[in-house]
Amino acid sequence: MANKLISSVVIGCLAGGLMLNPVAALANQDTVSKVSAEMASDVIKTNVSLEQAVLKAKEIFSVPNDFDRFESGINSYEGMVMWNLSWSKSKEPRANLSVRINAMTGEVMGMDRWDEPAPGQKYSGVPKYSLEQSAR
Predict the structure, then answer these.
(1) Structure confidence by residue, pLDDT tens digits, 82-98
(2) CATH class in words for 47-118
(3) In angstroms, what is the C-alpha Rg of the chain?
(4) Which of 101, 102, 105, 124 is the most buried (most CB within 10 A)?
(5) 99-125 pLDDT tens trace
(6) What pLDDT score was predicted for residue 25?
(7) What residues have CB less than 8 Å from 91, skipping those under 6 apart?
(8) Where are the domains of the chain?
(9) Distance between CA atoms of 81 and 104, rounded to whole angstroms?
(10) Strand 108-115 to strand 80-89: parallel, antiparallel, or no bridges (unpaired)?
């Protein structure tokens, strides 16, 4: 008798869990749909496509062949829409190149580059370019 009761409770819990998972999935789907709709509205407001932004970034900055990962995103803030492009190297020594491009004008708004020092190498802290050279 106790075995039947335990079996019934276990089956009830499993069945209840299966019934709740689609509800949770639908709730997540609604959230994803809202986020996707917001992002889509940002993309619609752009004059520069993702492909154009990538070409612009690669035209200005050298992306090494061993940067094997690419990620992109789009953000809007105070009326400005920006493409965020990021290339990274998954093998050691790791490295990353990030470029931000104005999605309305195609203007490069910023670039960051980080390289992990090779094993045994120390960071010197001395910049490669002067302030005057970087302002060109």
Answers:
(1) 999 999 999 988 999 99
(2) alpha beta
(3) 24
(4) 101
(5) 999 999 999 999 999 998 877 777 677
(6) 45
(7) 66, 68
(8) 1-44, 47-118
(9) 7
(10) unpaired
